[in-house]
Amino acid sequence: MSRTALGIPKMTRITISMNSQVETKIKEIQQHLTKIDGKPQSISKVINTVLVAGIVGSSKLSVYDWTVIMSFIKGKRIDLEAATGEEYLSNILALSQ
Prior knowledge:
By secondary structure, the protein is mainly alpha-helical. The protein has 4 helices and no strands. The chain has helices spanning 20-37, 43-57, 63-73, 85-95.
């Protein structure tokens, strides 16, 4: 039986470039997910989790929050060291409840 027949959405493989600060945070989140779940988590699963959390949480962002995000995307440095991977993960999990 095919994936689509089972109701599983089609997955698309893409290649992305990632800022080193973002990559570090993604890896921290991956480590904490692995600790919680007790089994290794793929980087693609972690990135998909963060993306979905961002999409869901975007409705709760203020104009200022979007300005900060866009500044980061445009190459201005923003301190991502303020929160640990564990704090990011707990925020992501809170969004899902």
